[in-house]
């Protein structure tokens, strides 16, 4: 085998082939690499040392191969890491948010990997450290904090951690007077919990053996471990359960949902032993969220054909659907994303014409006003408030050239108070950069938004390399926000681009629907259209484009590799969901039943089977001249299991006709999100960017 210039002449690992056949709907597939899926995968998530030796040997060989092929980038990776770390304020601290007698926030110490959580007196004063993430993570190869929630009486802290990367979280309760955790801890939770109003117990979700949050329990601090009361159980494996509370501590909210249907049950904190009350029974396709409003609930819903959602109200005492009344009507093209209720105001975050805005409504008069900005592309985040009886909310703003800014906003006077601007210690001059929004023509007449960032001095003659990022699933919108990491590419002459393809909600809910199930191919063709438009507009050339996506965006990478390998100079697929058909046929995996509304159910439907089979990257690997590919994975990832990219890489090497290398980098100590520390995560980004620079001939650029 010949390896392209720039890569050492080292033969890659060759996975053993053991054919396994599967027949569904009269269609038979064979899989030579199914053996890479550990039979005891549930046990491996909890204890990675239980991985079968032959699988571990193969994964170790993959890591050795990618290490060898990338060995000449060691100095570059070190430089990239130093640059990216230099743009982070090491001892950064959030602006504390007020709640009763205190204000709560988080901070980092110099060199710290994990956050510390602190509080001060409400109007400022000495910080008290409540939880030190670095201390808790000491000695652990992997450590990630989950939910952190202080009790309503401010005397205790409920906190969660995962020390495997498998997202089985352990809950602990800390006495804030002594700083000590209680002896009772709750394992296998979903990562957080919510206090009752009396601060003497909490609700949480527990994961089953298939890693699904299906039960809600109540834990009384007066009880011992193992005696927790089951509050609610969902028996349909296609629905996940979550529990939350309200800021005025009146209600416990139990949400049950998949990707297209939702249901709520509510429990009054005045009667914690009661039966949770159903709000509106699940109907396929009916989505709704409920938000506190004192004597009413605000209900964000797509009921009655409100594709881009509307806001209803219902009496809190009896919020059944028959009692819903319209407050904010449905407006096609204006997608309402979320709603927050306060004593005198109701606030919504919405997107119109591809840009977000915050709208504040006076509950008494019905008068509305909006908060928006003037840049061509930007991102807004609505933080809200810990408190319900307040006239102040908090929001963040950034663009691809503008560092994040945090504001407090007085809903009555409409005054903005700038609390903090993201510091870039190594320096950042926004005037050196340009952010643009293009509209790439798709083959069916649609136009695909593309957000761009590049330096003003970058020649736009087609010679610039380009990193083109895409996702396009679950209705998730990738914001055009400030990203200090990508400056390391942009400052080396890259154009950094985000393709807002169908499958997200960038242009409304219909944009999502046109990129799922039988319309999934639109996601892939939109991304290819974005690449071609960038070339047509002279921003780059096809052999200079490095495509990047993660998780479902990694599936996008696998699909475009099969559909248009010559449209891209290289592909980076992070924790890629590439074995779509096999996974959707395996109802024992954590996410499979809840994912059927997104992708289709190939077990029950031959049509869904054929639809998925037509694009599933692993099933469509062919004798093609693929560009260089870097796949990344985590051994304990419960969302995209490690064997998907491992199988994909093995099959690519078997089938491809060209000499471009295919690399697999697998983190043997982490899961879906990669390394858990803020700086160790930067090392992974540095590796990814070094690959992009290497394949575009920019590895020597200072």
UniProtKB/TrEMBL annotation:
Region described as Disordered: spans on this chain: 1-24
- Highest rank taxon of the organism: Bacteria
Family annotation (Gene3D superfamilies)? alpha/beta hydrolase, Prolyl oligopeptidase, N-terminal domain
Looking up InterPro entries in the UniProt record yields: AB_hydrolase_fold (IPR029058), Pept_S9_AS (IPR002471), Pept_S9A_N (IPR023302), Peptidase_S9_cat (IPR001375), Peptidase_S9A (IPR002470), Serine_Peptidase_S9A (IPR051543)
The family database entries (SUPFAM superfamilies) matched by this protein are listed as: alpha/beta-Hydrolases, Peptidase/esterase 'gauge' domain
What are the entry keywords? Hydrolase, Protease, Serine protease
Task: Outline the extent of the Peptidase S9 prolyl oligopeptidase catalytic domain.
Answer: 481-698
**Does the keyword Hydrolase belong to this entry?**
yes
Q: Where is the Peptidase S9A N-terminal domain?
A: 13-421
The family classification in the record reads:
Belongs to the peptidase S9A family.
Name the record gives this protein: S9 family peptidase
Which species expresses this protein natively? Aquamicrobium soli
Starting at the broadest rank, the lineage of the source organism is: Bacteria, Pseudomonadati, Pseudomonadota, Alphaproteobacteria, Hyphomicrobiales
